[in-house]
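dude i think i finally got it to work??
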Amino acid sequence: MKLRILVDNYTFIDEYYLGEPGLSFYIEEAGKNYLLDTGYSDVLLKNAAAMRIDLKQLDTIILSHGHNDHTGGLRYLKILYADMIKKPQLLAHPQAFWQRREGNLDIGIPVSMTELQQSFQVKQSTKPVWLSPRLIYLGEIKRYNGFEGKNFIGKIKNPAGDWIEDYVIDDSALIYCSNHGLVIMTGCSHAGICNITEMARQVCGESRIAAVIGGFHLLKTGKYQLQQTINHLHKQSPKAIYACHCIDLTAKMKLAETLPIHETGVALSLEWDAV
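look at this
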């Protein structure tokens, strides 16, 4: 499997791409092409073009959740695919498509379901989905522990038309079962990075973690939650951690005291099980 970061808050020095507060990973596995999230704007398309990645050849787009910094790129991808015969699958939790707001701001997917269905084969699942024998979409993440995934962000409109507190139940992750353990790819980890790693181990029947890459949602995190997160991850002994997008410097420095933190940004390219 090969992974390249197309969108992140930061870019590497001397790599002349664009950054924005969003996230998108381009993934090649078993002869197919995948996208995890789409960033906030058309930065996705610009960086892909600069990296000579043909987004018209995508097989599946996976949404980690429905916030617009992970789904905004769909406004541009839907145009790309509107007139094509081969339309990629768009996979997400059902709640990813519900309307969201925080204060007076709309923070959900900026494209209607009708528009999405014109350009994509929309698939909704709360359960794990095997995209290949080694690549798995986790579906709805169980909240195993009491120190993370407990806070709501704005409100979400349910099918009954009620605006309720949004605990981002749709937050999910993508897992690759490598020869050296699990590669866990996250969007924002609103469900909790420890909850995600625990569910990945149970669904895949594998305790080894080769890498964790993506957003950790550790921003102005309290000391108790941060220390519990570090303790939990330390026990799981991940070989490498690439924390990006939604983690502040304080949290990253604290994690780096005991965990193998690596620099991350647009243009990062990683491979597992390369022949």
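The helical segments are 43-50, 68-71, 74-81, 113-119, 193-204, 223-236, 249-256.
im so relieved honestly
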